[in-house]
Amino acid sequence: MLFNILRNGLDDPLQLIVGLFASLFVVFCTMPVHECAHAFVANRLGDSTARLSGRLTLNPMRHIDPIGAVMIALIGFGYAKPVPVNPRNFKNPKTGMALTALAGPVANLLMAALFILLQHLIGLWPTYSVLVSALLSFFLFAAVINLQLAVFNLIPIPPLDGSRILQLLIPSKYYYKFMRYERYIVLVVFFLLFLGVLSGPISKAVVWLYEKMDLLIGYPFR
Fold first, then answer.
1. Which residue out of 26, 32, 35, 158 is catalytically annotated?
2. pTM, whole model, 2 decimals?
């Protein structure tokens, strides 16, 4: 995120400051919601592993991964500590894992919708000021980062949430062979992110999502 701001220039230093605060807000306030959503759904489906590990909480210190947090601030993509899940505790392990994995990106989409709504509400303010401009930028950054996290996590490669959903679509023997290379795949993914190879397609998906959500949520304000 900050790399993009710096790359595009610093004509408006306020954007850099707001972008930094939005990134910190996502790390300390919205990433915990993403992880807590995983723990909540897993617990509701019969697996109390995350709850017993102290992960069914919004306390950011239980969820933050330092490297993942820095990545969110710098490029808008990152991660938190994985929520522990034991699929054997689910009545249907495959479905349970998929629903638990889906809970995180859904939480990000709901938070993005909230921030877009707040943008429109702030836009109703009768006078335009530096504070209004800062708030609009803040909610824009927060919405975009949440959409980036949702889209990024839905990529069907390990260890992202999308890989847990993928097991519903392919035979188990192929899925487990695929997961055997998890540690290597994740290194390749983050390397491609830093090179910008994956950033382009993800950004296009985020822009499309943002425009559609903004059109729908902003309809009553037009």
1. 35
2. 0.85
How far apart, in whole angstroms, are the C-alpha atoms of residue 11 and residue 2? 14
Q: Is 35 a catalytic residue?
A: yes
Mean pLDDT by 10 residues, the chain (222 residues): 52 70 83 94 96 94 86 71 92 92 95 96 84 88 90 85 84 76 76 76 92 94 80
Q: Two tokens at 53?
A: 């590990």
Closest by Cα among 110, 113, 85, 112 to 98: 85
C-alpha dihedral sign at 32, 48, 99, 83: positive
Q: Is 92 helix (H, G, I), strand (E, B) or coil?
A: coil
The answer to whether 137 touches 18, Cβ cutoff 8 Å, is yes
CA distances from 28 to 70, 164, 168 (A): 12, 25, 32
CA distance 96 to 20: 36
DSSP code of residue 60: G
